[in-house]
Structure formats: C-alpha cells, structure tokens
Write a structure and sequence with these properties.
Elements: H1 2-11, H2 15-35, H3 46-60, H4 73-97, H5 103-131
Helix pairs in contact: 1-2, 1-4, 2-5, 3-5, 4-5
C-alpha cells in the first residue's frame, strides 16, 4: 500500500495533497514497524485519518459514492492503493481475531482505505475545478 501511495504522490501536482500523501507514507512506515513489534513504536493516530475524510467532505461537498476510477493518474493510483489497503484489512482482521494484532492496529488499517478514497475524491475534484477556471 505504501508503494502505491508513493506512486500516487509521484503523479500528484497539487501541493497540499502531495504533502498529505507524503505524510501518509511516513505513517504507513510507522504502522509497519508497529505491526512488526519494533520496540518503542506506537500505532499511528487513527484520528488523523478521520480528519482527512472530514476535510475532504468539507472541501468537495461530496459524500462517499461509487465512482469509476481514471479521471486522473493520481486518482487512479489512489484507487489502486485503496484496493491494496482493503486487502491488507482482510489480513489484519484475521490477525485481530487471533489476537496477533491489537484493536488500534486493525482500526487504523480499516480507516486507511477511507482516507485514501477521500484523497482520490479531493484530487479529482480539484483538477476538475482547475480545468473549469
């Protein structure tokens, strides 16, 4: 998932979203360390992901809906990242059920795909509005 977020960032031409994707990559690195039980690492804060979702809803005025990916390379790359995050969530659920992953780790992975989806909506909304200026 981290590599796909990085690919989306490489395509991204909007600074605020670029910076958010860079931050997300860093958080995913911390999450991987946390899951692998690296000493001293705690789970990244899921509230930060919730804030992204809320911010995007405010900016775009859009609710989550079914969309066809491909309005932009960045948006499409984010949809691939979201798909990978959903796959990771299925693995995380199994680990949570067997008590190999704490609830906070599972919760973070669960909300990650929503935040990635929100970023794809934001990016595509922003480029549509730029084109109409």
């Amino acid at each position: 998932c981290q590599a796909h977020v990085g690919m989306a960032r490489a395509f991204c031409e909007l600074k605020e979203i670029y910076d958010t994707l860079y931050w997300m990559e860093e958080q995913l690195g911390l999450l991987m360390g946390y899951i692998s039980l690296y000493p001293g690492l705690s789970c990244p804060d899921v509230n930060a992901l919730e804030e992204i979702v809320e911010k995007v809803g405010t900016i775009t005025g859009q609710k989550f809906r079914f969309i066809r990916p491909g309005d932009s390379k960045t948006g499409a790359a984010l949809h691939v990242a979201r798909t990978v995050a959903r796959r990771a969530e299925r693995v995380a659920l199994k680990l949570y059920r067997t008590k190999e992953l704490p609830l906070e780790g599972y919760t973070y992975i669960n909300r990650l795909s929503d935040a990635i989806y929100a970023l794809s909506l934001w990016y595509d909304h922003a480029i549509r509005n730029e084109e109409s200026l």
